[in-house]
Specification:
It is built from 10 helices and 11 strands. With 247 residues, it is of the alpha/beta class. The chain has 2 domains: 5-33 and 171-242, Rossmann fold (3-Layer(aba) Sandwich), CATH 3.40.50; 37-164, Rossmann fold (3-Layer(aba) Sandwich). The strands form 2 sheets. A 6-stranded mixed beta sheet has the order 3-8-7-4-5-6. A 5-stranded parallel beta sheet has the order 2-1-9-10-11, sandwiched between helices. Helix 1 packs parallel to helix 10 (229-242).
């Protein structure tokens, strides 16, 4: 089967973006642009072995949940000591990863870090949480959540639990016509892999990623109006129809 579209991201199961392109008559595959390492397991283990000093966990990505899962796999008894404590999360994907560990996610409807800070503040003010939080982060985390917690006067400690790096090798099928970028990291990764985006038609999931493409000297052919599979596919299909002679 020939490939029309390469999605520069890790795939889900099932993958909504692949399904949306398939419904539009375009064959898509995912190619991850990031690699994750977990070099801080000993430090995290020490933190998890002292649950009495932590009122709640803050887990804002599936990678942070994966760091916990690695420890629970080795020390399954630890999971039960955390089962009754809230784990504040952003979004349903992270919530699902936390729930799969037997933990209790809170705040998945927040959608973004600033909203999650509001949810945590309410819990703190209502004394639902009575001990400092433990924020599990990556080495590239943004400042929104920790700065928001500081501004709200909520005590917390931070533990880096994973490192993110761009991949240096990405395999692009010969039949691919489109490269779809989901973050500036994708732009960085293709340059690192010596792939020339100008050899393909390009799409971006939103304005920040589109700006990263332009900074790299590439004008995207399509930019999604919203970060959803439907909006992305609509942008690509419109670009295809607007280009005379492209099937």
């Amino acid at each position: 089967m020939s490939v029309d579209v390469v999605l520069l991201r890790s795939s889900d199961e099932p993958d909504r973006y692949i399904q949306a392109f398939d419904e539009a008559g375009l064959n898509a595959v995912c190619r991850p642009v990031l690699a994750f390492e977990f070099p801080y397991q000993d430090a995290l283990t020490e933190q998890l072995q002292a649950p009495g000093t932590v009122g709640a966990l803050v887990v804002t990505s599936p990678r942070a949940a994966a760091a916990i899962e690695r420890i629970f796999r080795i020390s399954p008894d630890l999971a039960s000591t955390w089962a009754d404590r809230p784990v504040f999360v952003v979004g349903p994907k992270t919530a699902a990863s936390v729930r799969a560990l037997g933990l209790r996610p809170v705040g998945e409807e927040a959608g973004r870090a600033a909203n999650l800070v509001d949810r945590i503040r309410d819990a703190w003010n209502n004394e639902t949480i009575q001990a400092p939080l433990l924020f599990l982060s990556g080495n590239r985390r943004k400042d929104t959540l920790p700065e928001g917690l500081k501004a709200a006067g909520i005590p917390f400690s931070e533990q880096v639990v994973y490192q993110t790096a761009t991949r240096s090798s990405i395999q692009i099928p010969q039949s691919a016509r489109w490269l779809v970028f989901f973050s500036p990291s994708g732009v960085e990764a293709v340059r690192k892999a010596e792939i020339h985006p100008g050899d393909y038609r390009t799409a971006a999931i939103g304005p920040t990623t589109a700006a990263a493409l332009r900074d790299a000297g590439v004008t995207p052919d399509a930019v999604a109006e919203a970060p959803t599979p439907e909006a992305l596919v609509a942008a690509v299909v419109t670009a295809i129809r607007d280009r005379e002679g492209e099937p």
